Amino acid sequence: MVNISKLIQHYTDLDQEYxxxxxxxxxxxxxxGKGVWVWDINNKKYLDCLAAYSALNFGHLHPKxxxxxxxxxxxxxxxxxxxxxxxxxxxxxxLCEFSNMxxxxxxxxxxxxxxxxxxxxxxxxxxxxxxxxxxxxxIVCENNFHGRTTTISGFSSNLNSYNNFxxxxxxxxxxxxxxxxxxxxxxxxxxxxxxxxxxxxxxxxIIPDKGYLKAIRDICEDNKVLxxxxxxxxxxxxxxxxxxxxxxxxxxxxxxxxxxxxxGVYPVSAALAVDDIMDVMDPGSHxxxxxxxxxxxxxxxxxxxxxxxxxxxxxxNKSGIYFLNRLKELYSEKIKDxxxxxxxxxxxxxxxxxxxxxxxxxxxxxxxxTKDTHRKTIRITPPLIxxxxxxxxxxxxxxxxxx
Length: 403
Ligand SMILES: Cc1ncc(COP(=O)(O)O)c(C=O)c1O
What we know:
By secondary structure, the chain is of the alpha/beta class.
C-alpha cells in the first residue's frame, strides 16, 4: 500500500530539491480540479478559494474553455507574429469591444502587459507630449503589485521583491495609494503616466475611498498624464463588474489585463489603449514569440464570451455581497477588518494575536484553500462560478477555524 504522507513528502521534496525556492507553498499536492473544487493526491477534496490569484475566474476545466482548447490544439497552436493567423483578430476585436478600447497589444503574462503599458506610456510621452529624452516619469503607488520583472520589482515596496535586484530602473516615483493630493503634488512636466491597481490585491484587498478613481482620472486629464489601470487581477468580473473602473464610470487611457483572460489554462494578457496612444507602437517596437498565438486567442475569445454569456460579473457581485455580509457575522477580537468588493475578499487579523499562515493551514486541513498575505491577512477569491451552497461550505469552514 502507498503511504500517502510519504508520497506528499516525495512531491514537496522534489519541488524543493530541483526548484528554486522563490515560493513558499502551503503543503498540499493537488492532482485534479473541476469547477470550484480540487483534489489532492490522496483524493481529499478542497474548495479552491484562491483560484490561482484570480486567474481561474471560470473555475477548473470549464467545459467551454476545454472545448476551445481541444478544437484549436488540433488545428494550429503557434505561428509567431511573423504571420497572421485566423484567430487573433477575432480575439482582439472582442477584447476591444468588451473593454471599450480601440486597440490591444497581446502578450502572455501579467507582468509583460505591465511592461507593455510602461513602454507605450513612455513612447507616448516622448512622441506626443514632447518630454525631454530619457526624462519620462511614471507615478506608482506604495504597496503596489504589478509583477516580477526587473523594472517592476524595482518600484515595489516589498523588500523581498526588490532587495539585491538593483539598480532599479529610473523614472518611477512612488506615492501613497488612495491619496489624490499626493498625486497632484507629484505630477510634473516629465510625468507621462500614473500606474495603479483600482483595488490593491496583493497588498491585502485595499479598496480606495469612493471617488478616488474619478479623482485620479480628472487629475491625469488636467495634467495630460496617462491613467494606466492595472486590472490584471480586478478585471473580468472579479470585483462584481466587468472592470473595477466601471464603479466610477471612468475610462483609463491604458488598460492592462491578464490572469482570467487565459481561462485558467494558458497565459494570455494584453495592454489596451485608444488609437491616439497605441499608434506610437510600430513594427519592431515590442512583441513576443507566443503573444497573440492562435491557441491563446481561442482561449481569450472563449473566456470573454463565457464571462458575458453567463453574466459572471453580476453573479460575482451578488455572491460577494452575500458572502461578505455572512463573513462579517464572524467578527471576533482576533479580527482587525473584514473587507471586500465582489469576490475579492480579505480577512485581516490582529498581527499580535494571529499568524495568518496558521489560519490558512487550518483552513486547508478542513478542506478550504486560501492564501495568506503580509502575515496578517488571508485572501478569499473563489472562482466567479461559485454557487451559494459552496459559499456556505466556505463560511462553515472559516467559522469552524476562526471562532
Ligand atoms: C495587479 C497585478 N498585476 C500584475 C500581476 C502580474 O501578473 P503575472 O503573475 O501573470 O505576471 C499580478 C499578479 O498577481 C497582479 O495581481
